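Side project, low priority. Logging it here so it doesn't get lost.
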Amino acid sequence: MWDHPFWLLLTVAVVLWYSTITIVVALKGYGDIRRMLAELSESAELSKSAELSKSAELSKSADRDAKKRRSPLYYRLESLPLSDQHAETAARCERGGHHI
């Protein structure tokens, strides 16, 4: 091995070069992964808060729709002119008092 110092030096140089490149790429990759995870975390928090507010809005509209659907005749009653007695009965049905 000592008989060919050129090949020994070339081998050492190549191993050092590839080791250096491997370490540099690993460190850059580590930094990139940390940055991407931080961005994902931030976007997840933003989308979660947006989703919660959207969910609250949907929940409110679903509650309104559910109140309308409590009475099976709600849509029919809504389109008809009602007497005072019928209007009171329809209002009680919407509140869940009893069904028509």
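Brief comment: The chain has two domains: 1-59, 70-100.
Revisit when time allows.
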